[in-house]
Amino acid sequence: MLKRVISYAHELMETTVNPGETVVDGTCGNGKDTLFLGKLVGQTGHVVGFDIQADAIANTKALLEQEEVKNAHVIHDGHEHVEHYFKKYKVESIGGAIFNLGYLPGSDKSVITTPTTTIQAIDTLVAYLKKGGLIVLVVYHGHPGGDTERDALFNHLSKLEQRQFNVLQYGFINQKNSPPFILAIEKK
Amino acid sequence: MLKRVISYAHELMETTVNPGETVVDGTCGNGKDTLFLGKLVGQTGHVVGFDIQADAIANTKALLEQEEVKNAHVIHDGHEHVEHYFKKYKVESIGGAIFNLGYLPGSDKSVITTPTTTIQAIDTLVAYLKKGGLIVLVVYHGHPGGDTERDALFNHLSKLEQRQFNVLQYGFINQKNSPPFILAIEKK
User: Distance, in angstroms, between B183 CA and closest chain A CA?
Assistant: First the structure.
């Protein structure tokens, strides 16, 4: 059966991330991916998670506590500042990263991820990404401003040097309401 | 690791086609997919393969003979006439189908698949496709006329009713020379 977008994003992480690695959740949101990543890297690994919304940080921390996952740094700041925190936590390499681009479900739809900061974060992360590692972007683009971010990302990622990176697009083309799709960056 | 387009097309077939089923190779070409499908459905299954070029038919038959695969009908006709042959061979249902859309590698680049006949074949095949089955199109579009077929397919398949079908796009966006990508139709 063809995998739904979220399942496929998780499968991609599962097949490339190893226990003990550091991984990044670029957009903690409700914390589901932070939790998923925390379990994936296990007690010897770490998650560095970001969100600019206090609600998202609170929800994520609550979920991790409830599930007794203790290996995550949940940071109330924009993902474009990731390098600052990598230095703080002495992160030298990452096993992968996930971003859910758009707005926080169930929250203020005017607070959205934006192309400039998203691309800044990605450009920083690819330098830290291990060979064979993936940065998986789940691109929600049905909200106001979503098409701008989608197009900017497409434009930027389609220019990534093909000798160094593979950039995969995975999505369903016959669904209404602009469903999310995946852009996955693999470091060769 | 992110799967290359051809590997992913085969993986999709492997996860949905069962031994004993009838499957279709819409474009035999050099016979590689006909052979792959023949092995996949085994001695109790059948492949119905099409090509409009005599060279392709000869190459495919030679490859199957060499590999001692004997369960394929290799038909020198266009895939748009598939229903005629289904009646002839009493095919009532198919487990899946593959098309490589474009031109025969190493042959005359002016002989290409065309949107009208391709779409006609697909529309016939979805009626025979089992639930959960896939029609996988590997879309080559870098040759003259390739963009027209790509756009027509996209337009047609994006309108397939989402309650009945999932239509997946899978491809790499940062490669030069218009690499092929996958469009996969899943019957729900």
Answer: 9
